[in-house]
Request: fold
Amino acid sequence: MLSLPEQAMLNLEQARDLRASGYPYREIGRRLGLTSNQLSHIRRTLKRQKAASTRLRTRRPDATDRDLPVGQSVLPPGLRKLLKALGYLTLGDLADRVADPDLPGLATINGIGPYRLQLIRRMLDHYGLLPGSDDLQAEVEQLFPEFGDALPATPMPDDF
Reply:
């Protein structure tokens, strides 16, 4: 059986998928069996995430998911505040820390235990920023830091 925070993150992930499929929030609440408070929490969280993405892409059209701010992610407020205080301002910063074999894992930081680490990994996995995913831009930036800003934001077609 899942703990309450784990169930909340699972509900959030399922609601995100249903919302992307075009379901209204009322139908999402019915399908997942959510209370009105749980549904309003999911609505606020998804709205905050979408607003951050829209603001970022309005300011910088070439921005990627790596540039999304941690402070406006789907993570719980205390974890967002802790990560910002530690200097992780974007999802790319977090992804780099998780991917770096020379640094100890995020779980060694005070205040980030296995549950919070799981939340971070799920969020990075949603955006495709975990080390095992196809994050080509991060790999190129790691090998050639001077080319980090010169990469195209749109993926190239497969036939090249």
Observations:
- Confidence is low (pLDDT under 50) at residues 154-160.
- The longest helix spans residues 36-59.
